[in-house]
Design brief:
With 405 residues, the chain is an alpha/beta fold. The chain is built from 16 helices and 13 strands.
Length: 405
């Protein structure tokens, strides 16, 4: 690779649905395209973000889907061979220098083979979560198989950690989790925090018009939550907290932006607590920047995190935050300055923190302004792209040195 040629990077991600990890990739490739790299995105499942990425002039390739589990071993091997051939062809077509994976789990090991069977010189695994094993609750059937997969993945990651070029952790806590569970050799983990495109957030919007569209009064106090409806995000504790807040503050409303497997259970909880007039299920939305700009507060009641992109988006909007004291979040929120942190899984503390900011608008405004400054200075997309480029160059130079030696 000549010094002047851009670094060709292939990002391999599980899907292009709306989600924090997917948004992190979309933001990264946008800035990489003008920052010394030529990125492409490969995915196993098409989704809404594909159009946005292609609109930026970045190629998106759809890989053949995995159809069989390892229990059907001959078919599983055929699947893996088919996917590897597709990846190898793309590596050759685009002259790929670096491959970086996102949200792949077991397919990380298949991508690793490219380092030893093609001209790819660097393969990086990105970890978006401090708890990166599959929750047993994700599978109602064959829970034993989920536990076996987690143990197998842990062993495979440990064995492969000497072969992969490096790990990218999106927060300090994720770095610690990788070090504790996978135990790679020292120097293999690089922390590059998730980022936000600050240009997209905090723009002026017609708050009254948007609130009217949502059926909200102009003077309503509006709380936003942007998160997939799954156990990790802790929505049930916020719903429980609202049951104690609404009787005292009947003008408060919560916008639940997102969707997921727990939607029916959450709707049943809202109905049981008689909160249907105050908690609104908006589903997956593409106008998140505008929705955030019309709100007064952002809440993230997660039980664990990597580094929430939604939290960064709220900060870039200038919203004060109430969040749980979990991995990643503690790296973003400065308690008492940009928001309030509470224990995870504690509806009572969550309710108190929300009420504190509802009743002290001056403090809330000051926190929102401080959060916006912090997002711009510490978590900008440009900074994230620059740090990735520096990592790629360091690893590629190391490979060149080994080859010459």
């Amino acid at each position: 690779m000549t010094q002047n040629r851009k670094i060709n990077v292939m990002h391999v991600i599980a899907d292009l649905n709306i989600g924090g990890g997917q948004e992190a990739v979309r933001t990264l490739v946008e800035y990489q395209a003008s920052d010394g790299c030529q990125p492409i995105v490969c995915t196993f499942k098409d989704g809404p973000l594909r159009q946005e990425i292609e609109h930026m002039g970045i190629r998106v390739e759809i890989l053949p889907a995995r159809r069989h589990d390892v229990v059907a071993l001959p078919f599983f091997i055929a699947d893996m061979a088919r996917i590897w051939r597709s990846l190898a062809c793309l590596v050759k077509e685009y002259r790929i220098d670096v491959v970086q994976t996102h949200l792949l789990r077991s397919l990380d090991f298949l991508v690793l083979l490219l380092l030893y069977t093609t001209d790819v010189r660097v393969v990086l695994w990105t970890f978006q979560n401090a708890n990166f094993e599959m929750p047993v609750s994700d599978s109602q059937k064959h829970k034993w198989s989920v536990m076996l997969k987690n143990r197998s993945h842990r062993l495979l990651y440990r064995l492969s950690s000497r072969l992969v070029s490096g790990f990218v952790a999106v927060s300090d806590e994720v770095e610690r989790a990788i070090a504790d569970i996978i135990r790679p050799v020292p120097g293999k983990i690089t922390v590059i925090c998730n980022a936000v495109d600050v240009r997209r957030y905090g723009k002026p919007v017609d708050r009254m018009s948007l609130r009217n569209q949502l059926g909200l009064r102009p003077d309503a106090y509006v709380i936003a939550v942007v998160a997939t409806f799954k156990e990790q995000k802790g929505h049930r504790y916020l719903i429980e907290a609202m049951a104690s807040i609404v009787p005292q503050y009947p003008g408060v409303h919560v916008l639940l932006i997102g969707d997921g497997d727990l939607r029916a259970a959450m709707e049943a909880q809202v109905e049981a607590l008689n909160l249907r007039e105050h908690i609104h299920f908006l589903g997956t939305r593409k106008d998140v920047p505008a929705l955030l700009a019309t709100c007064d507060l952002f809440v993230l009641p997660s039980l664990w995190e990597g580094l929430s992109v939604a939290l960064l988006e709220a900060a870039a909007t200038g919203l004060p935050v109430v969040a749980t004291r979990v991995s990643g979040t503690v790296q973003v929120v400065v308690p008492g300055k940009t928001g309030i942190l509470v224990p995870p899984g504690d509806a009572q503390h969550l309710a108190r923190a929300i009420e504190q900011l509802m009743t002290d608008p001056a403090q809330a405004r000051a926190m929102g302004m401080a959060a916006k400054r912090r997002a711009e200075e510490e978590f900008s997309a440009q900074r994230q792209a620059d740090e990735h480029l520096a990592l790629y160059r360091r690893l590629l130079q190391g490979e060149a040195g080994r080859c010459q030696g």
